[in-house]
């Protein structure tokens, strides 16, 4: 089968065609996804994205799904994974009710759910308040955070406990190899521009400029989806037989062998996710 993983980051399988803005591996094609997909119509049996659409505006997300529809073969499957807004909202209200009723043990969970709902939309630096919360050595509810985030939280919690050291900062040469010369040159230009803004307009303007660059970098969430809104979006693009599935359930043959949504142990990789699939008729 011909399989496409869009916006894969560092999580991909070599049997797939993997594409992202920056290539972390020879198995990932670097391409500006804002230009569409560099593949002919009806090229792939399945298209997969995980935690990509929420980083796009609703208009751009719809354009991205139209491109996915175009490159899919007739009868092909699209699998879309996003943070689950419904789950976050329901869990937030549950912890709010408990904390409001005087359950002091629920306060930390309430604080975390507030971050889950808001932090990735409002943060101004890498990791945001969620990262600082997890890395706090005095974290009160590690099991709850692990339950909410799944396998991805384990490394964060290990760093907080001191059992896993934080990765050392890469040298310029290493970053050049990973990101490519153009990306590094662009970063140098941004740093130079920020210094210039600070000289001309002062430190507050410099901070605002740097925050604007960060918010355009792709880390923040520009929208959120639940099963109704994502299902409607898929149908509006032209997909049919839209359905919610579990992390280890798919109409893509042998999907769990690729370890995209599940771990080798059979657990969920991103526990806060909504998993939906649909067909191109």
Describe the structure.
The chain is α/β, with parallel strands linked by helices and 281 residues long. The protein has ten helices and seven strands. The protein has helices at residues 58-71, 85-100, 107-122, 128-135, 142-149, 153-161, 172-179, 181-201, 203-215, 227-237; strands at residues 3-6, 17-20, 28-30, 44-50, 72-83, 240-245, 273-279. Strand 4 (44-50), helix 1 and strand 5 form a beta-alpha-beta unit. Helix 2 (85-100) runs antiparallel to helix 3, helix 3 (107-122) packs antiparallel against helix 4 and helix 7 crosses helix 8.
Report Rg: 20 Å
Helix percent reads 40-55%
Order of helices and strands: EEEEHEHHHHHHHHHEE
Tell me the strand order in the biggest sheet: 3-2-1-4-5-7-6
| CATH-level-4 superfamily name of the largest domain | Vaccinia Virus protein VP39
Helical element count? 10
Within the CATH hierarchy, at the fold level, what is the topology of the largest domain?
Rossmann fold
Number of domains: 3
- Major sheet characteristics: 7 strands, mixed
- Count the E strands: 7
Tell me, what is the CATH class of the largest domain? Alpha Beta
Q: Based on helices, strands and strand pairing, what is the structural class?
A: alpha/beta
